[in-house]
Specification:
The chain is mainly β. It has two domains: about 100 residues, no CATH class; about 400 residues, Beta Barrel (Porin). Helices cover about 10% and strands about 40% of the residues. Strands 3-4-5-6-7-8-9-10-11-12-13-14-15-18-19-20 form a 16-stranded antiparallel β-barrel. A two-stranded antiparallel ribbon has the order 16-17. A hairpin with a 4-residue loop joins strand 2 and strand 3. The two termini are about 45 Å apart.
């Protein structure tokens, strides 16, 4: 900036002003020291000085205007007004009291409105839950997010896996908004080879109608859509193996429309997806179609017992392709104890049905869910062991259900799909909105019962019964398995961001198939800790 040359010019010119005013100041000093006083300035000298000051003021005014035009909305200099009272010709021109003060800080610093083309400043801070960066108008935000799970698995039972430490999740990413109607999120998994978990945009022109596209969790199950950092157990129920895209963390690329109706009493989601898991292309011309509805009929009620009740259901349809080596649902239990059901080659339509409910009241939570899937095996004979030709086999049927009950011993309320607010944190600051002092954190009891079964009926190809069979008959075996799981445990929330989960699973293999495994119980102890930001 070149504006400081103006006051320098002013000072330089004033150096050559006539001496009488300077003597006036010197006379005052001399009087204090007891020296003789010189004669005061004459009227002619004062008039000459006034003329020179007026000329100097005009010169500086013209110079300031020239520079202001050249700067094109640059900083401007406000001139002092040296007002001389003509009625007081003997006024002391050297006294600062006879001049107004130039406020350079206010006049020379342009406001944001004057800075044409300059982006608004960035605001950084902590909103009580996440660090954030945002524009001063609040339209653009970015928040780093992430969570980390460390876990120890201890197995007991014939053929069970060895005890081991694991890192089930180590995820980080970014979420925020772009304008008032567009949200986004990017989430990466780093516990295994770096993988994109979530990458989507959510356009929200209205509350009743929004559009989401990218890769994210398929809106089918209540349990799979539960916030992963808020889930009470170290692993999902064993019936989760029946959910779509279970081997791909229940996520797939796609797009959906969703909305909230009737003041929050009803929610809906309808979407189409590839149906093959994380970052996988579709294999047929018929994508996975999913629809879900959820009702909270007493959401606005004053009755606390009814207010937290919700129910709903989901349907899903997709198509498999034997030539793409597609298989039925994976029978590996969610705690990795054993595989209760062998995967089958499938070909044709896939239908899933789901029903669920939840009830939240103060420290209590009760949730239940049922899922059923049919995976067809049309013309699959030549793709299966013992099969011949293009015979159609009975479809693979899976059924499962789960029930969950939790209770906070320390009195916290269970929120709907989010982290509880810890009243008395053991470490760190209080939860957002909580004012309770330090304590022992929040303690939560939990219990879960779940079961899952799979059945794939066999067939015998014989010329005496099926004329279409070739000369070489074949036999496809029947598979039928059923497993129960009972889980009990305790959660310890040290604060709003750190929690410890302790689970004891009892896995009961009820009726094994022809795999040769005898009915037996397996005991699994899971101890995990989670940190999130």
């Amino acid at each position: 900036m070149r504006w400081p040359t103006i006051p320098i010019l002013f000072l330089g010119v004033s150096f050559f002003l006539p001496l009488p005013p300077a003597r006036a100041q010197s006379d005052r000093d001399a009087e204090v020291r007891g020296a003789p006083i010189s004669h005061p300035a004459t009227e002619e000298e004062v008039a000459q000085l006034r003329q020179e000051v007026a000329e100097l003021r005009t010169l500086v005014q013209r110079l300031a205007e020239t520079r202001s035009k050249a700067a094109n909305d640059g900083p401007r200099l406000a001139l002092a007004s040296a007002v001389l009272d003509s009625a007081s010709p003997d006024a002391d021109l050297a006294s600062p009291a006879s001049h107004s003060v130039i406020d350079a800080s206010s006049e020379l610093t342009p406001s944001p409105e004057q800075q044409t083309g300059v982006a608004p400043p960035i605001v950084a801070g902590w909103n009580g839950e996440h660090f954030f960066l945002k524009s001063s108008d609040g339209n653009f935000t970015a928040m780093p997010i992430g969570y980390f799970n460390a876990q120890y698995n201890l197995y007991k039972g014939d053929g069970a896996p060895p005890a081991t430490f694991t890192i089930p999740r180590a995820r980080f990413g970014l979420q925020g908004s772009y304008g008032k109607q567009l949200d986004y999120q990017f989430l990466f998994e780093s516990a295994s080879p770096l993988t994109i978990r979530d990458a989507y945009l959510d356009f929200k022109p209205w509350t009743s109608f929004s559009i989401m596209g990218g890769q994210y969790r398929v809106p089918f199950s209540q349990e799979a859509l539960w916030l992963e950092t808020a889930y009470e157990f170290n692993s999902l129920s064993i019936s989760a193996v029946l959910f779509p895209n279970a081997t791909g963390a229940f996520r797939a690329p796609g797009i959906d429309v969703h909305g909230i109706l009737a003041g929050g009493r009803a929610q809906y989601l309808i979407g189409v997806f590839n149906g093959q898991g994380l970052i996988q292309n579709g294999t047929t011309n018929e994508p996975e179609i999913t629809g879900k509805v959820r009702f909270i009929p007493w959401k606005q009620s004053g009755n606390s017992w009814l207010k937290g009740f919700a129910l709903g259901g989901s349907v899903e349809h997709s198509r498999s392709k034997a030539l793409a080596n597609e298989l039925s649902f994976n029978g590996l239990l969610t705690d990795n104890t054993y595989n209760f059901f062998p995967q089958q080659r499938i070909n044709g339509g896939i239908q899933r049905y789901n029903g669920f409910f939840s009830w939240l009241s103060g420290p209590w939570t009760v949730r239940g869910e049922y899922t059923q899937v049919l995976e067809k095996r049309d013309g699959i004979g030549s793709f299966v062991n013992g099969g011949v030709g293009f015979n159609t086999l009975p479809g693979v049927v899976g059924k499962g259900a789960s029930g969950i009950v939790t209770y906070f011993l320390t009195g916290e309320s269970t929120p709907d799909n989010s982290m509880p607010r810890v009243k008395h944190s053991l470490i760190g600051p209080n939860s957002p909105g909580e004012t309770g002092g330090p304590g022992w954190g929040a303690w939560q009891l939990k219990f879960r019962y779940s079961w899952v079964q799979g059945r794939a009926a066999g067939a015998t190809c014989d010329l005496s019964t099926i004329p279409a069979c070739p000369l070489a008959p074949g036999t496809v075996p029947t598979y039928s398995d059923h497993t129960d799981q009972i889980t009990a445990g305790l959660n310890w929330y040290l604060n709003y961001w750190v929690m410890v989960r302790s689970d004891l699973n009892i896995n009961q293999l009820v009726n094994p198939s022809v795999q040769g495994i005898l009915p037996r119980n397996y005991f699994v102890f899971l101890e995990g800790i989670q940190f999130r930001f």
